[in-house]
């Protein structure tokens, strides 16, 4: 019974997050420079990688090994600059090191 109540409480939060528009993140594309490596994940969870060419209100264009490609806005689930995994991994490792060092410093020696 407790699990059902938790699910009932969390369901509106999940629905609200799905209902948010992606307009703000689409406007962030203006920060991309032509030639930057990007990775696009479409609504079918297929990954598209290449170099950014241009964007408009309705689509994003990129260049890959097969030539120029265009994906419509409604077909894009997420977009990120490629090769950011190492950057995020290093940030996570630094945060973990800090927490571990803090916990170790607060624990009396054995």
**Low-pLDDT segments:** 16-21
CATH classification class of the domain at 30-90: Mainly Beta
Instruction: State the total count of DSSP E strands.
Output: 5
Gross morphology is flat
Strand order of the largest sheet: 4-3-2-1-5
Q: N-to-C SSE series?
A: HHEEEEEH
Return the CATH architecture of the domain at 30-90.
Answer: Roll
Rounded to an integer in angstroms, the radius of gyration calculated over CA atoms is 20 Å
Question: Beta-sheet strand percentage?
Answer: 25-35%
- Number of helices in the DSSP assignment: 3
Structural class call reads: alpha+beta
Largest sheet, if any?
5 strands, antiparallel
Mean pLDDT: 77
Terminal residue distance? 44 Å
Q: What is the helix content?
A: 40-55%
What do we call the CATH topology of the domain at 30-90?
SH3 type barrels
